[in-house]
Amino acid sequence: MKNEILKMEAPAIAEVDVLICGGGPAGTAASIAAARQGARCFLVEQQGCLGGVGTNALVGTWLGSFSRDGAFPVIKGVFAEIVDLLAAERGAIPAEQDVVGGTRHLGYAPWHGRTTPFEFEPCKRVCESLVQKAGVRLRYFTTAVSPTAENGRVAGVFIHSKNGMEFVRAKAVVDATGDADITARAGCAFTKGRPEDGLMSAPSVFPLLEDVDSEAFARYCRDTGDVRLRAVINTLKAKGAWPFEFDILVCCELTRPGRFFINALQQKGIDGTNADQVTAAMIAGRREARVLVDLMRQAVPGFNQARLVETSHVLGVRETRRIVGEHTLTVDEVRTGAAYHDTIALSGYQWDMADPKELSQQHMQGVQFRKPYTEIPYRCLVPRGMDNLIVAGRCVSTEWEAMGVLRVMPACFAMGQAAGIAAAMTARSGIPFRNLDTEELRSRLRADNALLSA
Fold it and tell me: pLDDT per residue over 3-55, tens digit each?
């Protein structure tokens, strides 16, 4: 089909120090941190709330903010502020109050603990309040479309909303889209998927259930050890009653007993940057949610009266693009616990990149870490070839398996906080991101209560 050409003028509606594209954990933290440094900030988000997959995909448990052994916190800063505000109104349970292993918030698996379950509605409001209190200009229902880039600098970004196409000029841009949309459209190099075939871990639609008998479910998990319900699924398979390709269920209880989100409905072969595929995955996942809940009522102890309240508003995408940065975090660095002169955040999460073809398989399972946390170097956030563009979130520069350790929400909050402070520094000084004084950046992060070492 022949391409068509669109020519139009877009009004320049703002000239700011820092433009943040995307209001998930990374973008929320970046905007707060940059504004607190005195930068004039504009945050655009395509949904109607902040929080990203936490609020829109109904993934109501934050993981990885404590060391892997559950001994100490590794992420504070903006993330901890949000948790504290939520906990004060009983909208979250801090990780300090969760067990070291076998948490009910991730289906009693012994390898999971120190989680932070939270409620969606207060999370939206708390994030929004902190952003506004910091003085950030916030625009919902607005998509960052495309940057204008020349000679290694982004002059600004075209955005689209009910107002039509508009343009925002910025001295520095934070790409917190999760998919590196702005970075890719600026012409920067990126990779996608695992190296052998380019395939990506399957995204999920998440059902939210209520009226679960928590005590009956807990007894089953503790008495049998069937914490991922493989035995239940195998029984259904033997009867020819299991229509899905995945063979584990992760039943995550929220702050209130009897209220669960289910991590299971993986949609195989989906590219999260392809609108048609994302649409198909949402439709299939929503249809499959009803089938899954009916089966759980029949076969999973405690779920016989469970009620499907809703499915996630967006697809829970685990990975798409990863930038080619000034440094690429490798699997070997994660495994051996590498330390860096420019560490700007930590993560206490585990290996977690499911095989795109065998949905319930983890090929790094059993590979030991030398340290109970992973350091994240600043250079992974800096795309090659651009002076005033930085990324934060799951699209930073890593090898495929290494990305699983960083892609969880608390680590994205921490990376976003670092990107926001760096953006304020670049906007003020004009110094390219790659040449920033990382000791000064680290000093500002520490002053903002971020953890850079354990």
Answer: 999 888 999 999 999 999 999 999 999 999 999 999 999 999 999 999 999 99
- The CA distance from 451 to 73, in Å, is 8
Distance CA 250, CA 132 (A): 35
Give the three-state DSSP class for 452: coil
Tokens coding 253 = 């209880």
User: CA 338, CA 373: separation in Å to the nearest integer?
Assistant: 10
Long-range (24+ apart) CB contacts under 8 A made by 2-6 are none
Q: Look up residue 216 and give its amino acid.
A: A
- SS3 readout for 87-151: HHCCCECCHHHCCCCCCHHHCCCCCCCCCEEECHHHHHHHHHHHHHHCCCEEECCCEEEEEEEEC
* Domains, the chain, with CATH or none: 12-96+115-193+319-353+368-447 (3.50.50.60), 204-311 (no CATH)
pLDDT of residue 436: 98
pTM of the model: 0.98
Residue with tokens 């829109």, as numbered in its chain: 56
Which H helix or E strand runs over 217? Answer: helix 214-224
| Sign of the dihedral defined by the CA atoms of residues 420, 421, 426, 432, in that order | negative
Which DSSP symbol is given to 327? S
275: CB partners within 8 A, 6+ apart = none
